[in-house]
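This section describes the prediction task in plain terms. A model, or a person checking by hand, is given the sequence of a single protein chain and must write out its three-dimensional structure as a string of tokens. No templates, partner chains or ligands are provided. The sample shown here is typical of the held-out split.
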Amino acid sequence: MLRQIKPKNARSKRALAKKEPLAHENTKTVLLLRGTTCSSLIQDVLSDINALKRPYSVRFTKKNDLHPFEDASNLEFFSQKNDASLLLFGSHSKKRPHCMTWVRCFGGQVLDMLEVHVVKDTARTLAQFKSEKCKVGLKPLLSFSGTQFASPVSNQHTLAKSMFTDFFRGGESSTVDVEGLQLMINFAAGEDAQDGSSAKIRMRCWRIITKRSGQRVPRIEVEEMGPRIDFTMGRMKEAETGVWTEAMKKPKGVEARPKKNVDTDVVGDKIGRIHLGKQDLSELQTRKMKGLKRSRDGGTEEVADYTSIISEGDADSTRVVEVKRQKIA
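The expected answer:
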């Protein structure tokens, strides 16, 4: 469980009040760090991710002696000091070459971590693509391809999907401008290798271009803008059950009250369910007929008339003959 801090004076009480959870939290900030030994490839990748995340990212260029899976106290210090709940740590060693550790924090403490390794042969930086780049601060479209991301059992790929969604989702917005949809980030995962190793995750960034089509709907084209990164899976640390439940809680009053018998389908259409009570057929209004009415003297009823229509040979002249039965006393 999370550690509770009791304020010792009024100043510390005000400082803790500012860090209390809000009904509508601010956009998450990503803090990018490097280790004591960091390859040039990892430094370029950190620069490219910083360019994709601006203005919601902070990058430190100084060397930090950190070992996330052995001791996470330094990461928690950086998270609390800079008010950043997302951290990305890059390092390089002979045992773990071109290593990147994705970290999420909750309440100033590490929630979960995922370690990946960048494949050097297929990596291409943002500067190696000569195409036009997207503007700063755009909200990207995220796409995940592969059955590994939809596994019912929690594994490295399901954690990677949750982690990448948190890192690249951007700020929340109630309305969307179509002209602002210019960036799409695709994560693709194949099948596991025969030797038992996990499948690679291929990250591709595309710029969405709208062109005239002569119709109301524009013609859409995509162009790769970089970076191009392939990840191999490393170590992982899942969140504890109690802390995860606490992190997933939603404050009261944020969600709209559900209306009875009103649902919304996957597309977003509103569907209503109507319940009808038991109908009383004795009060049902039927067709009014003379034969069903009571006579004025009471006690006598008329039997329904039988009307027969006899059509003559001439189409213009039709003779109607009515035959009535006598009243029954």
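For orientation: Residues 300-324 have pLDDT under 50 and may be disordered.
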